[in-house]
């Protein structure tokens, strides 16, 4: 074919260059768009959520291009805070009061720059309620949160707020509403009570085990025989029914733990999940005695093994049969730095025999001498549900601390246990000769390795058992059943953290759809096989020598496999297959949940707010909580509050009203004139968990009228002072606006007090001792420093002159429970000596405090919070020798005798003797030293106590005066007898008066206490130290043993672990 001129073929080279130019042109266009976007000015928006007191201090920051439309701004804010777009308003945040500001237009295409936002500056916005309704949380509105994307993670979930720790593990977007909506996986989570994640992991695994759940459902509770509250099987049954039928995202486990006999303190104890498994199974066996389920745990979880010792000379073997509920697998052999690579390798090591030779030789009954022998374990029977515990917790004898081994250990999805039943030994004729009954109990069980060991077993063995038949029959039985020992993994219980503590969660495969799920407390999400592999442990990559330092602390701790046997593998019971008692229980729990849902709906529409009322007769402020439906009117709310405050016999209903009130500032914010028929939800700004304000039920006499309180007003309490009688009248509340002048404010006071404004002199106290005369009539109240609520206190006394300072005088009582007691306010002047100030204090102390002292019988000294400091000598001058300032505080100390402090070179310390043989502390005694010599201190202590100088031990007190410490801790916790020669060096640093010194006779023995005496002393000391406000310290807490009490409550005699 010959192409025409109009339709000529394009050469390949030309086509290549044409495509290349097209690509470059497109890239150039993109780059120009990026450059223009980079050049575009940006607007910084800072948004404060004011809809809730818990979020009012939180801010989100958006840095947007100036061309961003307003509707996109709202979308970005909604996405950031997790609210449904359109259920909140944004207003300018210039100032705290945003109630009167118009909200920003939400659906506008106008750019934020055109809407008044400024580039290069901070633009403050407030997120507020829309039409009086609180914003709706995204998850509760849309329900579109995808568990597979939002909650798909393997590690522990981040905490919110903070309980503790360890506050429980919740997701970042977790809220109360999310607990009310079921996960999209269809499974229900369990709420972490505090540190009960280990319990949640085990309960979810048992629930996802068809054979266990079905058997539990078949058991019927007899209420006439047992209290349902203390019945463990019944509470587990209820929990499983709720896990299967509840519409909530997560349910509580408190009823189950209550049936264990646990109180709330147990929720703060984290235990080992394998330990819990053993204890719970034991409790269930006790509860199920003489029932159809009596042998359920053994049938499902119990296996058998032989613990044997075989003589290597004659072949004689002594052995013992032991049972187990789980197989503990060592992660790293003792003394080795190399961990086992897989579960299979650890299983081989578990049954690997050891040779007893040399000093460890075994005494053979047949040879009648010590011989070399082989000692080991041999599996006889594997259970239907095989539990493997990976022993990740170990003890480091170098550091003498518990450690966690985070080494990598793989485990298969299908585990073939055929290789772990060895028939070679069974073919040997020597084995036959050593199975006589006389040798049955001669072996020793590896009790340190086995989780459960019993000396005998009466149960029916449904698996492979090698101890009963002839060798030929045993070998035949093994060969025929070997193919049946294939197990499939269905539960991985994971621990994240260290040996000191951490978090448990479970990865479980559902037998219904073969899908893996992560059960992480209240969160249930789909995961993949790759996520399971992440729990192998070890580091994510090769880091050479330092690999263990970077190993992940999140790894598998317990594995549960199920035997693949179509004849035994059960499916979960369908609803129509439930026993009659389970059908009734399901119906009962559904009704309770519906009732709870209705109650919750009422709660969601109920406004709960603090209510205050000044009782019209008793004149005391009463406090209560007002709960009123959001659709109830203000008039109806007044009636409810009237009855709640019990005012029927004190004041008529029409003499009461509700006003907006700020209890913290004692400020009446506004009244609600003409809004008697307005719903409370609208008045209060919607139903909220907490409100930024309170309500006051205000009362009046029948002949009085209510005052109108407008928003934006400030409230001032005015005291009228009569200078002639030197009396201060009770306060009168006057309301004004911050933009009003002092003259206008005086006119308001004149109306309230009936005093002439022209001759009135107003003094404003902004804070303590800061008095200001309001003498500029044109100045506004805001300029004078008024706030929305102003508490004014007027004290009688002359005005301070220049160089004078008001001083608070406290009495120092070193041997009293409260060593600091306020006496009076005094005035000290610059240039005054200490003796002159003492002379001025004498008549005031006599008149105001009833202290009749002479000038030489007391001293003044520095006060630093509660600590007594430098002793002021009579000749010291204020501002020259002693720094003095406004609001200064000073200690007054009454002396027992003549003042011993004469010079600044002296040092006054407070000593206290500790008597260990009596477990008692003596009173404080002052010791005045001429120097900072330790030797002089010892001499003075020996002089006042009679203890020989060489037997004096001393230590400096810790903390603030009086340096309280428990008598159970003082003997060993203080730094006794520091190796220094002077007091002003480390670790003492005693450079000023007032230091506390404890001392003792080092030859005096410590009293020996019984456990009862120690506990009694601990209670007394704890009470004493808490009353004095000092920190109580305890010795490290012993790890509490995990116990389940079958009668529902611990026996008081057994509470000491």
Would you mind describing this structure in some detail?
- With 1057 residues, the chain is of the alpha+beta class.
- The protein contains 24 helices and 43 strands.
- Strands 9, 14, 17, 18, 19, 20, 21 and 22 form an 8-stranded mixed sheet that branches. The protein has a 5-stranded mixed sheet with strand order 24-23-27-25-26.
Mean pLDDT: 80
Q: Could you say which structural class the secondary elements and strand pairing correspond to? A: alpha+beta
Q: What is the number of E strands?
A: 43
Give the distance, in angstroms, between the N- and C-terminal Cα atoms: 101 Å
Query: What are the low-pLDDT stretches, counting only 5+ consecutive residues below 50?
Result: 1-12, 95-100, 140-180, 423-472, 541-550, 792-796, 1030-1038, 1052-1057
Radius of gyration: 41 Å
The residue fraction in helices comes out at: 10-25%
Report the principal-axis shape.
extended
Portion of residues in beta strands equals: 15-25%
The number of helical segments is 24
Largest sheet: 8 strands, mixed
Provide the fold topology.
Elements: H1 12-39, E1 42-49, E2 59-65, H2 70-81, E3 88-92, E4 122-129, H3 138-142, H4 147-150, H5 176-180, E5 189-190, H6 197-207, H7 210-218, H8 232-245, E6 250-251, H9 254-259, H10 273-287, H11 296-301, E7 303-311, E8 317-324, E9 327-330, H12 343-351, E10 354-356, E11 362-364, E12 369-371, E13 373-381, E14 385-391, E15 393-396, E16 401-404, E17 414-416, H13 424-427, H14 429-433, H15 471-481, E18 486-498, E19 501-509, E20 516-520, E21 523-527, H16 529-533, E22 554-563, H17 580-604, E23 606-614, E24 621-629, H18 634-644, E25 656-662, E26 667-671, H19 680-683, E27 694-699, E28 713-718, E29 721-722, E30 727-728, E31 732-737, H20 742-753, E32 763-767, E33 770-773, E34 789-790, E35 804-812, E36 820-829, H21 834-849, E37 858-864, E38 867-872, E39 888-894, E40 907-915, E41 920-929, H22 934-945, E42 952-956, H23 970-973, E43 996-1001, H24 1011-1027
Parallel strand pairs: 1-4, 5-6, 9-14, 23-27, 28-34, 35-39, 40-43
Antiparallel strand pairs: 1-2, 3-4, 7-8, 7-13, 10-13, 11-12, 14-22, 15-16, 17-18, 18-19, 18-22, 19-20, 20-21, 23-24, 25-26, 25-27, 28-31, 29-30, 32-33, 35-36, 37-38, 37-39, 40-41, 42-43
């Amino acid at each position: 074919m010959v192409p025409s001129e109009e339709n000529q073929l394009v050469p390949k080279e030309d086509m290549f260059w044409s495509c290349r130019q097209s690509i470059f042109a497109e890239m150039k266009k993109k780059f120009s768009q990026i450059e223009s976007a980079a050049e575009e000015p940006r607007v910084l928006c800072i948004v404060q959520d004011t809809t809730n007191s818990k979020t009012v201090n939180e801010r989100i920051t958006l840095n947007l291009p100036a061309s961003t439309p307003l509707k996109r701004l709202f979308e970005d804010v909604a996405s950031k805070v997790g609210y449904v777009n359109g259920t909140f308003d944004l207003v300018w945040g210039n100032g705290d009061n945003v109630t009167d500001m118009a909200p920003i237009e939400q659906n506008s295409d106008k750019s934020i720059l055109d809407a008044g936002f400024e580039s290069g500056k901070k633009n403050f916005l407030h997120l507020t309620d829309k039409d009086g309704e609180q914003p709706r949380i995204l998850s509760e509105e849309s329900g579109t949160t995808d568990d597979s994307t939002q909650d798909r993670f393997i590690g522990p979930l981040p905490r919110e707020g903070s309980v503790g720790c360890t506050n429980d593990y919740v997701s970042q977007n977790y809220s109360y509403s999310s607990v009310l909506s079921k996960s999209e996986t269809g499974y229900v989570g369990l709420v972490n009570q505090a540190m009960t994640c280990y319990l949640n992991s085990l309960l979810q695994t048992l629930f996802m085990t068809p054979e266990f759940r079905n058997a539990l459902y078949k058991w019927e509770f007899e209420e006439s025989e047992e209290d349902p509250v203390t019945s463990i099987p019944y509470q587990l049954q209820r929990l499983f029914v709720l896990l299967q039928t509840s519409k909530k995202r997560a349910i509580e486990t408190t009823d189950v733990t209550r049936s264990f006999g646990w109180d709330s303190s147990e929720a703060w104890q984290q235990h080992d999940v394998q330990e819990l498994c053993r204890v719970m199974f034991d409790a269930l066996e006790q509860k199920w005695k003489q029932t159809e389920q009596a042998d359920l745990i053994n049938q499902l979880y119990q296996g058998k093994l032989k613990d044997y010792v075989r003589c290597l000379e004659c072949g004689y073997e002594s052995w013992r049969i032991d049972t187990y509920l789980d197989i503990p697998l060592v992660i790293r052999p003792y003394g080795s730095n190399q961990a086992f690579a897989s579960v299979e390798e650890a299983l081989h090591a578990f049954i690997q025999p050891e040779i007893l030779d040399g000093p460890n030789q075994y005494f053979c009954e047949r040879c009648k001498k010590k011989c070399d022998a082989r000692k080991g374990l041999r599996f006889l029977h594997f259970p239907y549900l095989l539990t493997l515990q990976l022993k990740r917790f170990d003890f480091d004898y170098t550091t003498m601390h518990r450690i966690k081994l985070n080494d990598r250990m793989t485990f298969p999805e299908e585990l073939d246990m055929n290789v772990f039943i060895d028939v070679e030994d069974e073919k040997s004729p020597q084995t036959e000769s050593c199975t006589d009954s006389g040798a049955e109990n001669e072996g020793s069980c590896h009790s340190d390795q086995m989780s459960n060991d019993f000396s005998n077993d009466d149960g029916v063995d449904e698996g492979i058992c090698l101890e009963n038949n002839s060798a030929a029959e045993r070998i035949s039985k093994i060969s025929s059943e070997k193919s049946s020992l294939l197990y499939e993994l269905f539960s991985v219980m994971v621990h994240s953290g260290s040996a000191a503590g951490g978090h448990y969660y479970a990865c479980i495969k559902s037998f219904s759809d073969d899908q893996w799920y992560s059960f992480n407390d209240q969160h249930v999400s789909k995961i993949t096989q790759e996520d399971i592999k992440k729990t192998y442990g070890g580091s994510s990559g090769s880091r050479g020598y330092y690999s263990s330092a970077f190993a992940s602390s999140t790894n598998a701790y317990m594995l549960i496999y199920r035997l693949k046997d179509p004849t035994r593998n059960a499916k979960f019971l369908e609803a129509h297959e439930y026993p009659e008692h389970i059908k009734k229980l399901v119906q009962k729990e559904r009704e309770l949940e519906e009732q709870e849902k209705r109650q919750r709906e009422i709660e969601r529409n109920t406004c709960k707010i603090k209510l205050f009322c000044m009782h019209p007769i008793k004149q005391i402020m009463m406090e209560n909580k007002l709960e009123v439906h959001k659709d109830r009117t203000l008039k109806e709310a007044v009636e409810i509050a009237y009855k709640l405050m019990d005012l029927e016999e004190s004041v008529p209903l029409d003499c009461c009203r509700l006003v907006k009130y700020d209890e913290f500032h004692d400020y009446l914010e506004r009244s609600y004139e003409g809004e008697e028929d307005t719903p409370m939800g609208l008045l209060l700004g919607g139903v909220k968990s907490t409100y930024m304000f309170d309500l006051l039920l205000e009362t009046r006499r029948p002949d009085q009228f209510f005052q109108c309180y407008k928003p934006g007003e400030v409230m001032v309490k005015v005291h009228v002072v009569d200078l002639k009688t030197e009396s201060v009248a009770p306060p009168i509340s006057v309301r004004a606006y911050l933009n009003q002048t002092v003259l206008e404010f005086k006119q308001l006071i004149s109306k309230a007090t009936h005093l002439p404004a022209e001759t009135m002199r107003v003094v404003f106290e902004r804070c303590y001792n800061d008095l200001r005369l309001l003498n500029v009539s044109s100045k506004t109240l805001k300029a004078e420093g008024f706030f929305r609520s102003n508490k004014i206190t007027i004290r009688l006394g002359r005005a301070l002159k220049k160089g004078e300072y008001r001083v608070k005088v406290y009495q120092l009582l070193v041997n009293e429970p409260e060593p600091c007691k306020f006496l009076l306010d005094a005035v000290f002047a610059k240039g005054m000596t200490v003796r002159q100030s003492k002379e001025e204090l004498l008549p005031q102390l006599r008149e105001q405090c009833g202290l009749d002292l002479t000038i030489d019988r007391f001293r003044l000294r520095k006060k630093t919070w509660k600590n007594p400091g430098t002793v002021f000598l009579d000749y010291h001058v204020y501002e020259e020798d002693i720094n003095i300032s406004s609001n200064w505080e000073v200690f007054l100390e009454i002396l027992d005798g003549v003042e011993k402090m004469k010079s600044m070179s002296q040092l006054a310390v407070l000593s206290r003797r500790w008597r260990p043989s009596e477990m008692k502390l003596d009173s404080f005694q002052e010791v005045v030293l001429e120097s900072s010599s330790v030797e002089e201190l010892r001499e003075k202590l020996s002089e006042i106590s009679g203890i020989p100088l060489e037997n004096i031990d001393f230590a400096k007190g810790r903390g603030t005066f009086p340096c309280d410490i428990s008598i159970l801790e003082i003997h060993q916790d203080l730094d006794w007898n520091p190796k220094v020669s002077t007091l002003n060096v480390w670790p003492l640093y005693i450079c000023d008066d007032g230091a506390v010194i404890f001392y003792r006779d080092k030859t005096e023995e410590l009293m020996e206490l019984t456990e009862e005496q120690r506990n009694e002393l601990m209670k007394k000391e704890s009470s004493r130290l808490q009353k004095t406000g000092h920190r109580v310290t305890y010795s490290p807490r012993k790890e509490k043993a995990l116990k389940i009490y079958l009668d529902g409550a611990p026996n008081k005699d057994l509470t000491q672990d």
